[in-house]
Amino acid sequence: MIEVAGLSKRFGQTLAVDSLDFRVEAGTITGFLGPNGAGKTTTLRVLLGLAHPSAGSATIMGRRYRDLDQPAKRVGAVLEASNVHPGRSGRNHLLVLAAAADVPASRVDEVLALVELAAVSRKRTKTYSLGMRQRLGLAAALLGDPEVLILDEPANGLDPQGIRWLRDLLRALAAEGRTVLVSSHVLAEVAQTVDEVVIIHRGRFVAHSTTAELAARASSAVRVRSPEAQRLGELLAAERIAVTPIDADSLSASTTAARIGEVAAANGIVLYELVTEVATLEETFLELTGGETVA
Amino acid sequence: MSALFRSEFLKLRTTRTAVVLASGLFAITAVAVAAVLVFTADFTVSDQADLPATASFALLFSILFGILVMTGEFRHGTATPTFLASPKREQVLAAKTLAAVVGGMVLALVSLAIVYVFSVAWLLASGHELHLFDPDPLRTSLALTAAAAIWGALGVGIGAVVRSQVGAIVGALVWFLIVEGLVGVIWDDVGPYLPGAAIGAVFDATDELSSWGGAAVSTGYALAFCLAGTLLVSRRDIT
Questions:
Q1: What is the pLDDT of residue A287?
Q2: Of chain A residues 113-142, which have a CB less than 8 A from chain B?
Q3: CB contact, 8 Å: A95 with chain B?
Q4: Which of A142, A156, B130, B215 lies at a 20 to 30 A Cα distance from B169?
């Protein structure tokens, strides 16, 4: 449904997207994840024909966005929430877009009701909160009743209640058989909504898996405290177990508690503490992306 | 294409920009024509034939209008939803050019209507014979309307090339109010063919340019900027 192939995008000296490849199958909700500056927005803007790729291609239903017949009726997109004229009312903003996309004006009131903005729709958008502008953007994306939805950080500016509302809406839209690609720099925002995740970092592909696989991949580590932590570490390393020293008398090893107990017993090492730590989904994400998720 | 034009027309109706610009023009035109009427002692046939040119403030406002139609999209970031709704950017620019052409004509026609209403009232009240509807002043009015249409298109072209709203407006004003005059003095053989001089020739023929000549040269400028602007807007990334 969505195919990104060998996509690169260079801005001057910076390679914002570097030979990126991934596919999104029809009917799935896919999270497009990566830290801020990973190249998510750039990838989506190329996919939507707003930016030109330096190399490679990004297509929807086998075609470039601009080559689709009536693209706004097939693909809905939410990009920056601030892309509205401050002096125009939300309703008029949608009427303008509906006219351009050849969507009947009656559809405007339907989508306004759907995103719960009907009450303020005749007010000028400069009076809107960021959350309201996000909803307006979502309304614009839904105007053409598209089968594909592409959303860039739609949860930005939404309060926890709004995020929950968005999650329910996305689930409902996907349940209708639509394909949804939603980007975020916080896995937790989308983890409960998406079926699959595509993770990128510094413009490069990192991982593509189902959310369940990602959870299974969450590496568990064992924290050990021992007066002979250093010797234990060397012995474990000799067994090809990844070891990270924590301080003088403790370390973390990527294995099971049982294995460490066996190694310690076989070498007569005293253990003071042995704790299995299961990484959360978020930690796995952080690990994959080098820990750079801070906004 | 007609859908895109409807969308552009709706854009103009749903913000205050066009109304504010038009109100400013009509106020200036009213003051200007009132001043001309008050300070003209006699109204000969040729004096009356010059009156429609008082509406020529509409030209500068048409170019500003065209610039605003185009650069507003970049200034407010609405270029993104606009080009998502219709990714064939050259069609959007064509619709904008058409909107600015129509807008320029409306600005000129209403300005002319103000000039005519004021003038007819004044002439009748002061007991002069009316020559405002002779072929000459009517031809001037028609030419002025055509000139405003051409400059509306030129404004869209300039806006598409420059993109920055302030940059395009300041650039256009500096050119027409200062630079063009200087260039004309330094190279006096190109002076009559520069944009400001050429548009003037459309409704007030010069030795170098007839009405049609002025229209041809002005249309050339508008076409050049619109084509360059379309090329640039299509090639550049929308941010």
A1: 72
A2: 140
A3: yes
A4: B215
End-to-end CA gap in chain B: 24
Query: Which residue from A72, A80, A88 is facing B80, i.e. has the nearest CB?
Result: A80
ipTM: 0.89
Cβ–Cβ of A100/B82 closer than 8 Å? yes
Interchain contact B91–A (C-beta under 8 A): no
For the segment A2-18, what is each residue's pLDDT rounded down to a tens digit? 999 999 999 999 999 99
What is the three-state SS of chain B? Answer: CHHHHHHHHHHHHCCCHHHHHHHHHHHHHHHHHHHHHHHCCCCCHHHHHHHHHHHHHHHHHHHHHHHHHHHHHHHCCCHHHHHHHCCCHHHHHHHHHHHHHHHHHHHHHHHHHHHHHHHHHHHHHCCCCCCCCCHHHHHHHHHHHHHHHHHHHHHHHHHHHHCCHHHHHHHHHHHHHHHHHHHHHHCCCCHHHCHHHHHHHHHCCCCCCCHHHHHHHHHHHHHHHHHHHHHHHHHCCCC
User: Nearest Cβ partner of A99 from B7, B17, B79?
Assistant: B7
pTM as predicted: 0.85
